[in-house]
Structures are given as structure tokens and as C-alpha cells.
From TrEMBL:
Keywords: Glycogen biosynthesis, Nucleotidyltransferase, Transferase
Any single biological process term in GO: glycogen biosynthetic process
Pfam families membership: Hexapep_GlmU (PF24894), NTP_transferase (PF00483)
Domain spans labelled Nucleotidyl transferase: 20-154
Domain of life according to the entry: Bacteria
Transferase keyword on record: yes
Any one GO molecular function term: glucose-1-phosphate adenylyltransferase activity
Homology family: Belongs to the bacterial/plant glucose-1-phosphate adenylyltransferase family.
Gene that produces this protein: glgD
Transferase recorded as keyword: yes
E.C. numbers: 2.7.7.27
Source organism phylogeny: Bacteria, Bacillati, Bacillota, Bacilli, Bacillales
InterPro entries: ADP-Glc_PPase (IPR011831), GlgDAde_trans (IPR011832), GlmU/GlgC-like_hexapep (IPR056818), NTP_transferase_dom (IPR005835), Nucleotide-diphossugar_trans (IPR029044), Trimer_LpxA-like_sf (IPR011004)
Protein name: Glucose-1-phosphate adenylyltransferase subunit GlgD
Amino acid sequence: MDRIAGIINLDHEQDLLDELTYFRCGAAVPFAGRYRMIDFAVSNMANSRIESVAVFARRKYRSLMDHLEQGKAWDLDRKRGGMFILPPDWNDPTDISKGDLQHFHNNLDFLHRAWADYILVSGSQNICNIDFQEVLKEHKEVDADVTVVYNRVDELYPEYQLAHKLEIDQNSRVTGIHNDHSSINVYMDMYLVKKDLMIELIEQCIAHGGSHFFLDGIKAKLAELHIHAYEYEGTHALVNSVESYYRNSCKLLEADQHDGLFGNEAPIFTKVKNEAPSKYLPSSEVTNTLVANGCVIEGQVEDSILFRGVKIGEGAIIKNSIIMQRCEIEPNAVLENVILDKDCKISAGRTLIGAPEKPFVVPKRKSM
């Protein structure tokens, strides 16, 4: 059986979620009540029987390392293979690589030692539930050099402007990679390539002064390589701004969107934290809300997402808001279209109101 090793490349992902990425990289941002954004990439790999996963991180990765630990939550704490968090700690004076090619070059040992025939590279900003074994199957059927994953979107939201788009012929062969805002073929920052070919392309890119492996090693060789496009048809969200984070989080309150990510046979895993069940006091009124464990609710909550350990005081009103771990909202406070980062405290009687297209964001550990 052909084996795959995984790389989660965070090097080129910009931390554009404003207050939510002041203290962490985007991959470590909490999502959907109990997860982090990177959980989807790692879970997709683990569910696809990928037993070696490397994470390329350059900055603000302390929170990420604390969350991933040794990969136990994803069954990646193994004697052979496992999870490797590879921050930039390089001391090779002869290294001439730049950009994310520094990660690929300085961690070639991971590629050489990986017990795998293929390498699957993914980012963390595309939230989905995908089986990479199906990608491999199609890759082999068409005898491709590289297979890239894309989603044909129904509506062009602003976040897609930052994503690459694909031009595809009738045989699903990629003929162009660009940033045309009108294109609906959104590249999901995932590609599969044979390990030997990847190592060869890395060396070529560095020798020619490249700085971005996908752009300089794959996009630049469209005429030379057989680059196949695999269409992912499941639930997909691209999160690269506060607005896209808020909108895609709120979509999870719709049953079809939630079930598209969490309702199939491939579960999304995360770091386990044992807490008591949430407690709903007689004065509480909760409708259409995702509630994680450990919450204590006395007030009114509607169309919102509550992470672990949130406390809502009596008479408080929470609407269309995302309240992260261990936040405390005191009695008679009013929050609407608000995102509270972890460990925030909102004083009694305080009112915070944002707009659906521009939510009010309170940074981590802030008291108001």
C-alpha cells in the first residue's frame, strides 16, 4: 500500500485575524466551540491514515505547541512516525534558501526519513473534512505529477480574493493558477506529490533563488508537470480575516453546515480537557446555540457559540456572538455581534454591540 506523510505548512499564512492573532498564529485560533483551526488539518490527515505529520511554524507558535503537544489527541504519539513541530531553529551558514523553502530545505531529513511514497501538504485556513486517500486514488488513476485540491464555490465571499484560483481543462488538468477575483475554482492550499519529485523540485527551487515552494516549484512548472485538479465537494470554509471567521462560525449553527464538518464517519479530534457538563440555571434561556462543556448559564443566549467554561450571569443577553474559553459575562450585560477572546470579563450592565459585517472583537484577557 502506498503511504503518505503530511506537512502542515504555516509559513506563508498571514495572521490577519486582528485581535485574535495578537498572541497566537492563525492556526491556533479557537473555532467551533472546542477546537482550534489546525485541528481540521491534523484530523483530516489522521483519518486518512497518515502516520507522520510535520508542522512548519515560523512565529507565535507557543500556543500551537501547547495545543498539539506530542499529537496524542490524533493518535500521533508514535514510536515510528508521529507528529513533529518544526519551528525555525537553523544554524547552517551555507543555507541560501528563502521563504518557506527554508523550512523544506532545513527539514529535508523529515522527507528522507518519512516512511512514505507521497507527501501531502496542507495549510490551516481551509476548514473541511476531506479523505486524502481519495485524493491519492485519483492522483494515481490519472498518473499525475502533482494533484491540487480545490472547491467550486457558490458565492464569492471577500476572503476568496486572497486565495489562488485554478483554470482547469475538460480532463481536470490545471492550465493556470492565478488570483482572478471572478473565478469560482478556489485552490484550498492542499496538494499531493511523490516524495522523490518533491525533493527534486525543492533543490531546483533553491538553486534558482526561489522563495515559495508552491509558486516556484509547482505553479512555475505548469507546462512541464502534469498537475491534476481534485474537486472537493463537501463543506468548506476559508478563514483568513475576522469577518470570515465570524461568518463561517455562525454558519455552524445551521444543521447542514455543522453536519458537513462533524456529522460524517471521520471525526474531528482536539486536545482533550475533562470538565463537568454545562449547567443551565432556572433563569436561563438558550436557543440555537453551540455550548461546550463546563459552562454555567443564568441569562439569555441566542444564535451564539460558547466555548468551555463560559459563565453567563442572570439577566445577561447574548446574541449572535462567539464567547471563547473561560469568559465571564456578569449580570445584565448585553452582547450582540461580539467576539470575546479567552479569559475576558464583561462587567455588570455593560453593553457591547457590533455589526454582522463587522463584529466587535475583545482581545484575550481583557476586562470591560
